Amino acid sequence: MFPHHREREQPIFSARAHVFQIDPNTKRNWIPASKHAVTVSFFYDANRNVYRIISVGGTKAIINCTVTPSMTFTKTSQKFGQWADSRANTVYGLGFATEQQLHQFLDKFKEVKDAARLAREKSQDKELANTALTIAAPQSPPVMCVNGPEDKLFRSQSADITLSSEKERIKKMLSEGSICEMNLEAELFTLQDSNSKLVAALHEANANVEQWKKQLVAYQEETERLRDQVSELETHGGHGPSDLLKDELTQSLEELEALLKAKDEEIHILQSKKADYHEMEHDRNEAMHRLREMEMRNSDLERRIQNTEQNLGNSLEDRDRMDTEIQRAIEILDIKIFDLNDLRQSLVKLIDK
Fold first, then answer.
1. Kind plus residue range of the DSSP H or E element containing 182
2. CA–CA distance, 101 with 41 (Å, rounded to integer)
3. Which of 178, 207, 295, 308 has the fewest CB atoms found within 10 Å of its own CB?
């Protein structure tokens, strides 16, 4: 028996979506599993013949679901779909940006589910066949080792280890770039949220300023009218009830002046907040610039990964051809050994005669 290549788990389809999970208490409401859209991917494990749906947010797995033939992805609205995972005892929901993306994910889910069903049926048939062979097969003869092909196999195993380590290094680089991108997206989301709150506060403050300006004009008019009345009373030199009215008017005038002073201070505070808004806008622009740089780095990493995967594929094809040639050489060697053994038996019989 010769070692064969163990392919690692590979992505076969990816999409961007907002991830939700059903509330475990009510079983009715959705709980967001991510603040923004994340990558949701189908993975295939060639060793175990298993399909999985995986999504990572930051440094933790949001979805880690093994696809079974009994699962069904249901479209519940124009851009939203869901499926149940009995192993995790939960229901996952995905919100897409467009209806076309939802249909693409739905088609891939059906395709993967059918593939999982065929894989299960083949696995069951293989187990039955192995059981029958175990019961009926006689004891196998000892396997002969040949130094030449075995040495080639050792070199093939060394090539596998080198390719695997290179692939792990590239995956690590990609994961680090994805984590940085997600952190920048989270920072940008926070800045945008703060920016929207500040803009709403400024709009409200501007509306209040306009209202206060109108009140200020009314208070100024009222103040002028009261001053005119005070001046008129002082001119006539009235006494008695007019003195009491004068005191009341003076008190009202002082209250209005204090109110005007307070309104001026509030207007000054709102104007100072505008400087904070401009600073927040500057931080948001810097975050956008950093995000674009990170996207360019990720694009470069993806291009390098594609080149590396192509090189890996070529190396694997060469290795497979080498294995085929080794197998053919061993078969020829087995035939030669059998012929030599047959010749030896014929010579022994000839000597005995």
1. helix 147-236
2. 13
3. 207
Cα–Cα–Cα angle for 91, 94, 97, nearest 5°? 170
- Helix (H) or strand (E) holding 320, with range, is helix 241-352
Q: What is the 3-state secondary structure (H, E, C) of 69-132?
A: CCCCCEECCCCEEEEEECCCCEEEEEECCCHHHHHHHHHHHHHHHHHHHHHHHHHHHHHHHHHH
How many CB atoms lie under 10 A from the CB of residue 53?
24
E strands in the chain? 10-22, 30-32, 38-45, 50-57, 60-66, 74-75, 80-85, 90-95
Q: What is the pLDDT of residues 133-191, one digit of tens each?
A: 554 444 444 444 344 444 444 444 555 566 666 667 666 665 555 555 555 555 555 66
Hunting for tokens 């690590």 — which residue is that?
Answer: 172
pLDDT tens-place string over residues 165-179 = 666 766 666 555 555
**Has this prediction a pTM greater than 0.85?**
no
Give me the DSSP letters along 122-162. Answer: HHHHHHHHHHHHHHH--PPPPPPP-HHHHHHHHHHHHHHHH
For residue 165, the cross-strand partners are none
Q: Which H or E element spans position 255?
A: helix 241-352
Nearest alpha carbon to residue 183 among 33, 94, 59: 59
Half-sphere exposure of 203 (CA within 13 A, CB side): 6
Q: Which amino acid is at 262?
A: A
Alpha-carbon distance 99 to 80, whole Å?
Answer: 8
User: What's the distance, CA 84 to chain centroid?
Assistant: 20
> Interior CA angle at 324 toward 320 and 327, to 5°?
135
How open is the CA angle 209-212-215, to the nearest 5 degrees?
155
What are 100's two structure tokens? 């076309």
- Block residue for tokens 């694997």: 316
